[in-house]
Design goal:
11 helices; 19% strand; 264 residues
Length: 264
């Protein structure tokens, strides 16, 4: 049952983007079409030259946006974190989408669970044609979400970034995103949140994560995995868990290489 709109917390959504004109309008509409009663939507463009700015101008009445050179994705997210005014915060990349009513589910969850500081939900993986792919990966991560424990997080990052939201007040203890990280800034943030707060889980699909041949996740899989392993060593002291993560990492790289060959 939905809460009375007056009880729902204000939600701020941040989108970092750079040259994503192919997908960003779908991302914007997936946010605006939520019809959430108290929504602040901020888009930070790193200076696109592919038509992104024209799309942002089209929605200027409904979003706050800025286009200027930045230091990367984490820098853009931090710009949003510094100026947003919502009680609840999330960020969604400019090629991903929210599922219908996702923000209402999130708002209602936080309204009815005042003790919860952050929450995540399920996420589908889609390709550039909006078709769901790699459902076995999603299924595997959903199982891990049900049994979330900080130790498991040291083995694999199973927390879906676009389906994760947190209270603004955690900025006072956890701080901002690490701008030195290019690929795993969200993983780093989940470690820091897990050290202080219990992760809550909404057992419903909240978002769709897009992967396609030119996406950063796809083209930089090996480099991303290297950055991830260095990050794990920052937070994990157990040699067993580090070895487990290394094994899992090698398996991931092998799967990505196999899938890349199939798509050629």
């Amino acid at each position: 049952m939905m809460e009375n709109n007056k009880t729902l917390p204000k939600i701020s959504i941040i989108t970092p983007t750079l040259n994503q004109a192919e997908f960003i309008e779908k991302t914007i509409l997936s946010v605006l079409n939520q019809n959430y009663p108290d929504l602040e939507y901020l888009v930070f463009d790193g200076g696109s030259n592919d038509g992104t700015q024209e799309i942002l101008k089209k929605y200027s009445k409904d979003i706050k946006w800025r286009s200027e050179p930045d230091q990367g994705q984490s820098s853009a997210i931090n710009k949003g974190l510094r100026i947003c005014s919502g009680e609840i915060i999330g960020f969604i990349n400019s090629d991903d989408q929210y599922e219908p009513s996702a923000l209402l589910k999130v708002g209602n969850f936080f309204a009815s669970h005042p003790e919860a500081m952050w929450v995540t939900g399920k996420c589908k993986i889609i390709n550039e044609y909006e078709k769901e792919v790699f459902s076995f990966v999603s299924f595997y991560k959903h199982i891990l979400l049900r049994f979330h424990h900080p130790s498991l997080l040291g083995v694999v990052n199973y927390i879906p970034q676009p389906s994760t939201f947190w209270r603004r007040e955690v900025l006072e203890t956890v701080g901002f995103f690490d701008e030195s990280l290019r690929y795993v800034m969200d993983y780093d943030y989940w470690f820091r949140l897990s050290q202080r707060y219990r992760l809550y889980f909404i057992n419903e699909y909240l978002s769709k994560f897009r992967i396609y041949p030119s996406s950063k996740t796809w083209t930089s899989a090996v480099t991303q995995q290297d950055e991830e392993e260095n990050l794990v060593r920052r937070y994990v002291n157990s040699k067993f868990l580090i070895s487990a993560h290394h094994f899992h990492r090698q398996l991931n790289v092998s799967i990505y290489r196999f899938l890349q060959k199939k798509m050629r």
